[in-house]
Amino acid sequence: MDKILFYGVCALFFFLPVSISPLGIVEGLLLFTWIISGRFMKDAGLVLQKWGWPVLIMMGLPWIGLLYSGDKVTGFEFAKRTDYWLFSFMVAGVVISGSDAGAFFKAFIAGVTFTSLAFLGQLAGIVYRPGNDPYVFFNHGHFDVYRNSIEEPYGFFGNHSHIELSLLTTFSIMLLSFYFAESGKMRHKALCAGLMLVQFVSLALIRTDSGQAAFILLSPVIGYNLLGRKRKKLKLAFAISLMLVGALFLSPVVQGRIRQASGETAAYNNGQVATDFGLHYFMWRGAAKIFMAHPAIGTGTGGYSYFMNKDRQAGLPRFSQPQNTFLYMAASYGIFGILAIIYLWAVPLCVGWNKRRTVYGFAMLVFMAILTVGSITDTQIMSHQSGMLLAMFYGIVLAAGKKEPVTRQLNEYQQAA
Q1: What is the pLDDT of residue 230?
Q2: Is 357 helix (H, G, I), strand (E, B) or coil?
Q3: Most buried of 12, 100, 261, 404 (most Cβ within 10 A)?
């Protein structure tokens, strides 16, 4: 049973950046297997340890908030997404049983590589892409980077999840940089460098800004890893990071996104809301107002939707959440929500820092940094991909808190490093 669950979790990490359909199938089969095997009764008990409290809070808070929500239909849809946290216990049990969590990261890198190659193949016309219109085409000396950029899928990932894909791609690049630094064999370094290049090109052509922003902020870490993590080469590491950022800005997609941000921000300041960036500003401002009006316990799960749509202006879409994790928690649960999200972030950051020289600790720190950036422009804790990945990372955290086989694995890895 341990082997079945281990390979099932590996499949989850692989399909997270590939496609939500096979991911959902694997999730269902794995949950069914976990429950009928009886393993869930033992693994779920991990919530009682001190590092399990954030999981318990995030599972219970949406259902409590549903009791005083003005929009229980939307609230119920959000509350159902607490099922992601069941995978925290499953992953913890798999790791505690002695399985190597490093295999999860390698499966994830393989999934990102698959999607990156499929996406680049679509742009080149090698792989089928619905619509058959070029993603980027040359027109009178200028690149038009917007035509069908949202309507068409990125590989098989889907057509409305470009923010999540960019964040997952950046996370994979960071993991590859760690493996590059750790490997003592040139062929392994060459493989890591090649995969980083493929994923970097894919990242530069995804029409969003979250993943690119995270990449820019973490680029010094990439440079540091590429130079073997030697402190005496910190200046050179920063120079490499500047070159990486410069290469990213060569992308016509990135350049177009910057022009769009500048133009739509100016338009919003002049009263025009119905633009990509304008709607984000409008939703954030609305969430801040809702929190200020209900600071104690917020408006409940789905309460943001109720207040934002009660007197919605003509021509504006319906708003269900503010596309910002921190503002969502504040508007929904008030001060309690803010404290809950701080607690949720603090635990993996502390565990990751203590184990920062291992791939487990490094992955936790990097993922939480990327999740923070992504949470500014979307409610990542409710995204299927990011929410699931956060929940599974908490499984590794819970396993580390159990101080059983995972602790031995981490210590052995650190000694070898």
Answers
A1: 81
A2: coil
A3: 12
